[in-house]
Amino acid sequence: MSKASEYRIIVRGAGDIATGSIARLFRAGFRPIVLDIARPSAIRRTVAFCDAVYEGSVTIEGITARLAESLGEAIEIASNDEVPVLIDEEGRAIAEYKPDALIDAILAKRNLGTRCDMAPLTIALGPGFIAGEDCDYVIETMRGHNLGRVIEQGSAMANTGTPGVIAGYGKERVIHAPASGVIENINKIGDVVQQGEIIAYINDEAGEKISVPASISGLLRGIIRDGYEVSKGLKIADIDPRLEEHDNCFTISDKARAIGGSVLELVCADFALR
After folding, report:
1. What one-character DSSP code corresponds to residue 135?
2. pLDDT for 1 beyond 70
3. Could you give the CA distance from residue 132 to residue 153 in angstroms, rounded to a whole number?
4. Which terminus of the chain has a lower count of CB atoms within 10 Å, N or C?
5. Same domain flag for 35 and 82
6. Which letter, b or e, does each residue of 95-125 get, where b requires 16 or more Cβ atoms within 10 Å of its Cβ?
7. Nearest by Cα to 68 from 80, 79, 55, 56
């Protein structure tokens, strides 16, 4: 195998963290095929390739992702130097495509079906997997000293449910749906909002319009797609208190890049042996 583009990769998941890995692989010459669900719930939609499911195509940092209707079309899109996104929640395309590497970047905090025997190289991001049993390697996704660490035996740190601290704010900067229903967005990603300002409404089944106030003042770094049907407690928005970080709303995060670097390291090492 002489070309990176001939090395077959499937990435499960195309949220903002997965996008960091996909982008790094793409820039290194690999042409991954991405599988996602029919209704992705990404908050940081401006930096998530999964938004191609809704928009048909999206471009992030110069890389275009395009929705594919079949595995054959996905292969064609990849050959045209774009990232194909195929709706395939069950991963049916894996057995047909026979990838050299399979990367589980769903970040569901649990294993939704990835197994070691699905590809010669299997990598999983975050908790819910055991390296050496469910997959070959696990990548640490918890912010801190071990972020991006390659784990050959064992698991990543357990999910704490507490977001990373930014400018002194942790859980306060994340907003969860106060009720189940359809979200109606007032603000868009990149807007400056004030604490208590209404940024969205939840229209519930009873016809009630439930307001969603900003938890803190800052930049609306992420908000779930307008019209999305949310369940009570679902994460729906993220506020960055640093007003000077406006451009960060539209670029891949440091966390996603760090994790993506570790994924690329493992893939390159495997590719070099072929």
Report:
1. B
2. no
3. 6
4. C
5. yes
6. eebebbbbbbbbbeeebeebeeebbbbbbbb
7. 56
